[in-house]
Amino acid sequence: MVIDSIPLLIPDLPSTKQLLPWLQRIEHNKWYTNFGPLVQEFESKLVQLFTQWNHGNYYLTTVSSGTDALELALLALNIPEKRRALLPAFTFPATATAIKQCGLQPVFTDVEPSSWLLTPAIARQVLKKMAFDVVLPVATFGYPQPVDEWDKFQEETGIPVLIDAAAAFGTQPLGERCIITFSFHATKPFGIGEGGLVVANSADFIHQVNKLSNFGFDCGIISQSGSNAKLSEYHAAVALAQLERWHQIIKRRKKIWEIYRHYLGAMGNKISLQETPDDPVPATLSIKLNDIGNNLSQLVKQLAKKGIQTRRWYYPPLSEHPAFRDIQRVAPDGGDCLGVTKELSMSLLGLPFHTDLNEEMIDYICCHLLYSKNHSQFPMASEQSFPITQND
Amino acid sequence: MVIDSIPLLIPDLPSTKQLLPWLQRIEHNKWYTNFGPLVQEFESKLVQLFTQWNHGNYYLTTVSSGTDALELALLALNIPEKRRALLPAFTFPATATAIKQCGLQPVFTDVEPSSWLLTPAIARQVLKKMAFDVVLPVATFGYPQPVDEWDKFQEETGIPVLIDAAAAFGTQPLGERCIITFSFHATKPFGIGEGGLVVANSADFIHQVNKLSNFGFDCGIISQSGSNAKLSEYHAAVALAQLERWHQIIKRRKKIWEIYRHYLGAMGNKISLQETPDDPVPATLSIKLNDIGNNLSQLVKQLAKKGIQTRRWYYPPLSEHPAFRDIQRVAPDGGDCLGVTKELSMSLLGLPFHTDLNEEMIDYICCHLLYSKNHSQFPMASEQSFPITQND
Known about the structure:
Largest sheet of chain A: 4 strands, mixed
Distance between the termini of chain A: 28 Å
Number of domains of chain A: 2
Oligomer: homodimer
């Protein structure tokens, strides 16, 4: 078997042919942004989808990115400057940058060892040590947050919950109180290039987010100032074409996931997978190598030599980046050591996970993973390293 | 002559057919955002264009909007929180929202009566009364700022100058010190849907803005945190197709402007036009009605009844929006009355200005403008008002 290279990610977006009818509609409308007809149609179809998936009335607005979704939802919550926002240290930077951009004070906490999530239980423990004004649990790697429990947390504490479900479109259920944001970045299961979404149960809240995405204009007057974060008609065109392919993308990703589970199963307790009761298809496949010690970098290099592109999520953890080192951290036990985040960052490896994979490739990946892990140097390994060409 | 309606603006963007070859390249590359090959090609072509238009070495980075261009350029300047940023009250809200989003303190000043611009002379007068840490002159309605004078201002005072040239791509010259931002919003002469640009003489500065547009990542590490403001490959595709039409768009806009000047000339001193030495083709055509008193709203309605869509730029002035009412204002004389801004906001009328106009339409507009202005009610005017359908 000859396998040249297996990229970590190949985005699965509509073809030019699939985009054409939507682009022709833009050309006909001569409306290119500012809440145009394609954005409106996409939003209507999303409301239908969410109503199918959940029970309840949902309101939503598209925005230009998952990061803007977080920023504008935080702005719309109208929390006074410098107040504390709790987030996991084990997340992508956007969760923290959004908090900083809104003039709030991020506070890092840890995640739960099996789900790798900031759970309501952790937030309750932190709350005994330190007050905070909003919490941003993350649906890490597309694993859904327990929205019912978060609804209860919000009801009991009065603290607003904003779930950063960037990678969890299609897996994160909606609740009755939490605000939920999604990303449509090219690397997400539902990718459109750049794009984001805010969903909530309150029509007023979503109206406010929508206005803030256009500077705050409400009938020509600005009462709260926002920014520019409108989804353009071009991105809405990609989104509408993508919606037509969504069923088939989900099906294919589910199949890939089943094959992976089969092959990873052969590795026994050498590895662990992320665990939540929902057992979703992940957005990004990360495995935890249970006795890797400090050898993960070596393993990454060995796999690269075999053409297998991997990624260490999230290494270093957010709290170790120079920009975030001064940020306060509170572990569930009240200390400042975020032990689970630290351990995960040292032992997690992101494997290729996309719809271009087949069983042969997955077999190849898992076989070399097991082999490389057991040998310090790969025998007869080519010195040529695999170039990173995909967007990530 | 029967003219149903004349919209204020009809964006002039590439056709689906003109987009096709670029979209096919995206499909081939499978690269949809994050500094992809089309963004790189667009940026290279922009560098060539600016080098043709100006003398000097320029560095630039695209971003997702003109507002993001301002926000990230301000962030990259690394000005301590709460410091003062001087801007004209006579501008679009983005100039002020960007300052607020970056945690700086906006300070409004006035504009010069004939150019309608915040000039270096005004900034120098303000500086005698109050210190500020950055100044954001605006190339209002696409009229260029005197960049050489601003370079001199920056050299002499040490205060960085960030020119908000949102509407002035093609008319705003570059200098040797000032940072300049542009917008590619659909309503701008060079429209691509949503998009923006930061240009500067410093490679390091542009590198930093570029990194901040991707959260601040620099080889996987974040030292200064940013946001997500990357131009997607789809918007770059529109931009590359638009570049091929740019020469023809400029030519057409110049022609429209010449016709307008001819017909507006007939109105003598009843109206004034914006004046700068460069005499550029405006991005947006605003005329000042010299003896309109409080009757502008009435005129807008009368023109609407004749199918002529107009817009009162910028009414109310920025300083009168509830979100900005608390912001400090300093007139060039040291007082807090921004007299020119106030007068302009009461007497300016934006007229249709786009490449779909022809001489017959412009004649019709100017004829009804003169007629309506001289009559309190239009004789036999239809009561049907003109619906606003364009994006604005």
